[in-house]
Amino acid sequence: VNECVAGHEGCRRPKFSGRKEEETKPELPTRVIDVGTNADGATVRLVETKRRRDHYIALSHCWGPPTKRPLCTSKATFPQHLAGIHISSLPKTFRDAVAITRLLNLRYLWIDSLCIIQDDRNDWSMEAPRMGAFYSGAHLVIAASGARDSTEG
């Protein structure tokens, strides 16, 4: 990642040219998973970003069949996910993404099933059209392209 950001023209971070470093960071999606700063932390939590700017990782993954649906945020689980999600309750693909995010010393991770309230039509209609921007604005996209569902890692 460092080689890419430093050496590839299309990946190079913009020069500050008088602007604060914060202004050069992308706007975070509406909600992200805060993986914390402790590599051994047992929980992560959903946070509302309020248009804050920072680098984040996005996860592209296969949801799989209805019987293997990944952990999702719903209207009912939204308050719980804001309070914290125990890592042991995450499917393997999500746990792997949290580990990679922490290893790269980034704090935020965007996962569609957790960051979009799945049974809220208003939230879905606002967030789904922005998914392309969420992926393209990410510092890095992890693609779990070999997994048939979120349990495989």
UniProtKB/TrEMBL annotation:
Residues 56-152 form the Heterokaryon incompatibility domain. This is Heterokaryon incompatibility protein-domain-containing protein. Coiled coil: none annotated. It holds the Pfam family HET. It comes from Clohesyomyces aquaticus. It comes from the Eukaryota.
